[in-house]
Design brief:
It is globular, with a radius of gyration of 18 Å. The protein has 11 helices and 9 strands. The protein is an alpha/beta fold. The strands form 2 sheets. Strands 1, 2, 3, 4, 5 and 6 form a 6-stranded parallel sheet that branches. It has a 3-stranded parallel sheet with strand order 7-8-9.
Length: about 325
């Protein structure tokens, strides 16, 4: 029997040959990688240059993924397709024309906000959420046109619901969990999950410990039971994995993720200095070699082979096929 495709909807690792080999060992066929947190356009291009060098250095391990067919090629050749995405709209600066340029350079996902208010939408740490801005509405339209997926993983409630409504193509929440399972500013309400499912959007389940019930001590059974419950809420065809794996980074990188250049003080995110630095991953998912554990856990939670294959990657692959290219008129 052919192994189902395995796709991770979000990682931000300290990339190295070691990690690329772990991806290969874990049978990970594609990963959506963050290539911008707070970078402007030129800085983002420098990050793309670095990835081009890695593609050149490790052609037997990784390749640039722009389409669903690229993921299929990676699987057939034993490699991992690397799909670029932004966790902030900072790479387009204040220029809507850069949406198409970024897509041309390979970007396939862009969050409309990180944790703060952006020019487009509101982040989940803001006290007030006025929703999608005037520019945000125009950028969503342009993203829909070229095939750059709207990602609302770090966005606040009203902004997320409005993005789902405004976007004429399905959006994604690439890395978050339901708030019914674990209350966190980044996790999503039942209202958001229902709207996401009804619109054909995708949710990638996060393994970042601050998003997990029990944090680093979260059990595989608890995680997979949560996925099974979410499947009842929004349909198993709309679910995938978005691990948010931040492997091998020093804790100083968390400062860049959360603070960027907007503050001179350290922002601890969800209100506690306990959230400083990277917490240990659960022992059943420490790196890319452990995707098989999730697959086994989903089966133990009572999900069918078809639903397990979908959640492990087939759903993401279908979503890529339908949403990575220009809108068909």
């Amino acid at each position: 029997m052919t192994r189902p495709v395995r796709i991770d909807g979000l990682q931000y690792a300290n990339w190295s040959e070691k990690i690329f080999r772990q991806m290969q060992e874990g049978g990970v066929d594609a990963v959506h990688v963050t290539i911008a947190y707070h970078e402007n356009f030129r800085e983002t291009v420098l990050n793309i240059e670095q990835w081009n060098r890695w593609f050149e250095q490790y052609p037997d391990l990784i390749m640039h993924g722009r389409t669903g067919d690229d993921v299929r090629t990676a699987k057939e050749t034993g490699r991992t397709a690397i799909i670029f995405g932004f966790q902030n709209p900072s790479p387009i600066e204040d220029d809507i024309g850069l949406v198409e340029i970024c897509h041309t350079l390979g970007a396939r996902f862009m969050q409309l906000s990180y944790n703060n208010q952006s020019l487009l939408a509101t982040g989940c740490y803001e006290a007030e959420d006025p929703g999608i801005t005037r520019m945000g509405k125009q950028v969503i339209r342009e993203m829909n046109r070229v095939g750059l997926v709207v990602d609302m993983s770090h966005s606040a409630e009203r902004s997320t619901l409005e993005a789902i409504e405004i976007s004429e193509r399905p959006i994604a929440i690439t890395h978050a969990n339901p708030s019914f399972w674990h209350e966190a500013l980044r996790n999503k309400s039942d209202d958001v999950l229902r709207a996401l499912g009804q619109s054909g959007g995708m949710l990638g389940f996060s393994l970042y410990p601050h998003h997990l019930k029990g944090k680093s001590d979260c059990t595989l059974q608890s995680f997979c039971d949560m996925i099974a419950r979410t499947a009842e809420l929004m349909g198993p065809q709309n679910l995938g994995i978005g691990s948010d794996l931040c492997q091998d980074h020093p804790d100083s990188v968390v400062e860049w993720m959360r603070v960027g250049r907007w503050s001179k003080e350290i922002d601890y995110g969800e209100g506690s200095k306990d959230n400083a630095g990277f917490p240990p991953m659960p022992d059943w998912f420490e790196d890319n070699r452990h995707f098989g554990n999730i697959e086994q856990g989903l089966r133990a939670a009572g999900l069918s082979d078809q639903d397990v294959a979908g959640i492990m990657g087939e759903n993401w692959l279908r979503f890529f096929d339908e949403n990575f290219g220009p809108r068909q008129v």
